[in-house]
Design a protein that fits this description.
38 strands; 10-stranded mixed sheet; elongated; 4 helices; 584 residues; mainly beta
Length: 584
Amino acid sequence: MKKYVFLAASALALASCTSDDFLGNTPGNVQSNTSAINFDGGTGKITRATTQTGADAAKTLGYSYVVYGYKTVNDVPTTVFDHYTIKWNGLKDKTESNTCGWEYVGQKANSLSSLEGDKDQTIKYWDYSASQYDFVAFSFGKATQGDEEGKVTASKIDNTPSYTLTGNVNELAKCFIADRITATPKETTTKKANLLVGYKDDVQFNFRSLSTKVTMGIYETIPGYSVKDVVFYSDKTTALSGENNKPTLYAASASIPSGKGTITVKFPTTDENNTDYNKAHVEFKAATGSDNSSSIQFGKLSTVDKENEEKGTTGFIGRDITTFSTPKEGNNKKYEVVIPAKVGALTLKVDYTLESIDGSGETIKVTGATAVVPEKYTNWEPNYAYTYIFKISDKTNGSTGGSTAGLYPITFDAIVTETETGKQETITTIADNSITTYAKGAINEEYKKDANIYVSVNNTTDLHIKKGEDDTTPTNVKLFTATGTGSYEKNITEATVALCLSKGTTTATTGEKVLSVDDDNKLTVTPATGLTIATQIEAADAVDGNAISGNFAKFKPTNAGTYVFEFTDTKNKNTKYYKVIIVK
C-alpha cells in the first residue's frame, strides 16, 4: 500500500567560490577597499539530485539576474543595489567585483532601476557601519521579456524588496526566484538558511523555478479483477469521451492559473528564529479579462497487461504502487507545468470497468466514483512537482447500477511532498467522508514506526475522544491493529476490516474481533491505544518546518504492522469509515 502524491521540490543551489585574492581578511569594523560585494548564482532542476553551478546555472538563468539590495545604518535603510543587472561573463575574467563569473560593474541600468538615463552600474563595497544588508534577486530565465501581450515584465513595489512579474502563465513558469539573503557583520557560530555572517563572503542566491509541476496516477487493488476503460470527468456531470478522455482533476471554482496574470513576490518574515525566515512568498492574480481554469488535464495514462493473462492484453491500469498508471514521456512521468496558486480541493471523478481475471470474461461497470484531494495539500508552491495518486479498492462510492453505491471504492491514496528540507506523505480513502493520513519522511514506501501519523477527515472538523464522564461529546475516532492468516494475510482492506468489526466474533478478554473462514484463514482486528486529538501538525513534523493548523487525530506506532483508523459520523446515522495504514 505505497500511496503517495509526489511533490519533488527543486532548489537552485549556488556553490561558493570565494576568492581571498579579492575579498581579503578584514578585521573588526574597518572598511577595506578590497572588500567589494560579490554575487554568486546557481540553479537546479525539479529533482533533489540535480544542482547546477557555474556555466550550467548561468545558461538556465538566461545568463543574467536582477538584484535589489539595501543596507541599514542606525535603523535607516538605504538602497545600495537599485535593481542591478548581474550578468555572467565566465570565470576567466575575474575582477574585484567578480570572483565567481557574475559581474555587475559596467552593466547598463535596467528599466526597474531609479538610475536615470543610460548610466553604468558601479562597484559597491561593504559598509561596516551598517547593522545589516538585505538582498533579493530574480531571473527571467528563458522567458520572453517585453511589454507586448503575453511577454513577461517586472515591476518594483515602492522601493521594497517585493516585486511583481506579469505575463502569460507559460512564460512566467520560465522565471526563477530566490529567498532574501541577509548579511550581518556579527561573528557567530550559528548558521541559518538565508543568513550570511560577516561582510566578506560572496552573496550566494539559492534560485528556484517559479513553476509548479503537477501530474496524477491511478492503480487498483481489487481481488479477482483487473480495471480498464477508465472514463474521466471535467466537472460533476461532464464525462469525457474520445480524444478528450484524459486524466482530469477539477476544482470547485476557476482557481487554476491559466492565461495571463501577475505574480507578486514578498518577504514577510524577518524573525531569524522563524523557519519561514526570509522565505519568498508568492501569490498569483489573474489579469482582468483573463479567466482561470476550473480543471487541469494530463496526458494519456500508461497501462499494463491484464492480471493472470499472457502478455499483450494491455489497456489495464496498474495493480500496485510500483506499477501505477500515470502520464508518461518516454520512461518518465509527464508533468503539466503551471504556476503557484491556492487551488482548493481537487476532485477526481471516474467511471471504470472491472474484468474478472478467471477467464470468464465477466465485467462490472462502476460509474461516478469520486475522490477528493483535501485543500491542505493543493497549495501549489514554486519549485514543487506534485503527483496525486489514486487507488481503486474493494469499497466504493461509485455505483454498479441503480441508486445504490457499489462495492468497489476509489480512494485518494497519497500525497508525498519532497522539498529541499523534508518529505511528506498523505494517504486518503474516499467514501462520503475522505480520510487523509500524513507522516513526515516517507517516499515510495509505507509509513514508518516511531514517527507521528496525523489523520484528518475531509468533511469533519470535530474529531473527538471523550475526556471523562462529564464530557458529553461522544468519541468518534478509534484505532485498531489488524493481522491476517491464509487468504487474509495480503487481503486486509477497508472492506474486510469493516466486515470483521461488524460480523466477526468478539474475544471477551481483549475486545478483538476475529473473522474466520477456518483455522488457517483468519482476520483479527484488535483495539489499539495511543490515539490522541491534535489541533495542528507540529512544525517538526511538517515538510517545510511550518505547523499546519486543523483538527487531527494523531498516533505514533512503536511497532511495524497494519493499523486501522475508524471514524464514526455521528451526524449521519453513526456511519463508520475506515482507513488501513501500513507501518514498516
